[in-house]
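User: When convenient, might I ask for sequence and structure tokens for a protein?

AI:
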Amino acid sequence: MNKIRLSLLTAGLTLSAAGFAHAHATFEKGSASAGETFNATLQVPHGCDGKATTEVRVRLPEGFVFAKPQPKPGWELEIIEGDYGNTYDNHGTKVSAGPVEIRWKGGNLPDAYYDTFVVRGKFAGFEKETVLAFPTTQLCGEDGKVVWDQVPAEGQDPHSLDQPAPTITITMAGGDDPHVGHGSLPQSAAETVKLGDLDISGGAVKAMLPGAKVGGGGFLVKNNGSVDDRLIAVESPAAGRVELHEMTMENDVMKMRKLDEGIAVPAGETVELKNGGLHLMFMEVEKPFAEGDTVPVTLTFEKAGKVEYVLPVGTAAGGAHSGHSHQ
């Protein structure tokens, strides 16, 4: 492997928002489209058992190509090059080698603060939805070390891992993604998505306050068929987990409960998920939803199957909840 070194002599500016000792190293944005040039922004939330981080190493997976890291004042930048597993087209030029690991070295990120490390690259060669892991290592002085390299086995909950590798989910820009159910196509925020006899529309998530970890949202689902269905699960790369909830008034007190059995969608009826009633709850949100963003979700119905949907972030529906009693 070849090594390219770039020393930065400018004084370091690493102070930002406080992190939590239990937080994982994650990407600011957890999904990207195949063929997209993407700024992968790694968030490093803490040091090694209280020690300051002095080096961050990120291994680049196959398919994240033509990478260019962003220099950081006060850190030396090392780019390790190697062979790709495949050959990629770069504006008519065939490329079979390039950066395979990025190292930011010689800095000083105190445990009390977090910082971001950015590398720009292109996701190339993907024909189906894929989750890419970027194994990451933090070094803290001579003997401190945290390794984020665990990848879940098939069917394993990634949140069960102690030191999961940061990941980015690559989605299809067209309609060939086998994870999109029954021929449904990815949609812009304003469109209606069809899944068998179901029409899904009107989605929205409410913007969250800085530092918030829980958000809410919803959408409309119309069952045009003659058979009842049920929404049984929702997943999103933007949250640690997504739960189905219902809010009700009891003795002038607003109470919220989790719906473990899902939400029924009777034949011939329209069900609305929104703040104040049935709704989605986004838990363990790493980056609070900001107005103008979008939140991708995978909806799973008992009979119709799975479909990808995109919720715009605004103030129209859903919302983060506070001050409610839980059963």
User: Anything to note?
Assistant: The longest strand covers residues 93-109. The chain has two domains: 2-171, 181-326. Residues 4-22, 174-190, 316-327 have pLDDT under 50 and may be disordered.
